[in-house]
Amino acid sequence: MPAKTTGAQAEVQAVIEDWADAIRTKDAKRVVAHGTAEFVQFSLAPPLVADTNIEGLEQWFATWRGLIDYGMRDLRITAGDDVAFAHSLNRMRGTRTSGEATDVWFRHTMCLRKVGGEWKIAHEHESVPFYMDGSMKAALDLKP
């Protein structure tokens, strides 16, 4: 039997779904609005530690033709009164302005805090596994 969803879990899920829709529609202001003032990101792209800013996000969005096909699978949310975390397998697909097709699955974790009565994303971590055969190549061909 599936675990019962709490009110906090439903609130967090709504935030995550709106955040993902902002990625899909390339709405940088809405993406950033979901973050805390001290938001920290461990992104797929360098550097090792990043903060999201509207300008950088808009520049990245500009490298995509049309909307981004961004989806989440197996989203799991654990939420208390003022702290929550969620993890999922995410897929990002689309065509870059260079004409290159992108289709990648990656692991995604979010940590959220309740700030002023609203759930905000405090930390985000994205990763892909790598082949431990000596090549050190990212395992971009994996599918769930």
Give an overview of the whole structure.
With 144 residues, this protein is an alpha+beta fold. It has one domain (7-127): Nuclear Transport Factor 2, Chain: A. The chain is built from three helices and five strands, in the order H-H-E-H-E-E-E-E. It has helices at 7-24, 28-33, 54-61, and strands at 35-42, 64-79, 83-96, 101-115, 118-127. It has a five-stranded mixed beta sheet. A hairpin with a 3-residue loop joins strand 2 (64-79) and strand 3. The two termini are 23 Å apart.
Number of strands: 5
Helix content: 10-25%
Second rung of CATH, namely the architecture: Roll
Name the beta content range. Answer: 35-45%
Which regions are unreliable across 5 or more consecutive residues at pLDDT < 50? none
The biggest beta sheet is recorded as: 5 strands, mixed
* CA-based gyration radius: 16 Å
Features:
144 residues; alpha+beta; Nuclear Transport Factor 2, Chain: A
Please provide a brief summary of the model.
The chain has a five-stranded mixed beta sheet with strand order 1-5-4-3-2. With 144 residues, the chain is α+β, with helices and mostly antiparallel strands. The longest helix has 18 residues.
Break the fold down into its secondary structure elements and pairings:
Blueprint: H1 7-24, H2 28-33, E1 35-42, H3 54-61, E2 64-79, E3 83-96, E4 101-115, E5 118-127
Parallel strand pairs: 1-5
Antiparallel strand pairs: 2-3, 3-4, 4-5
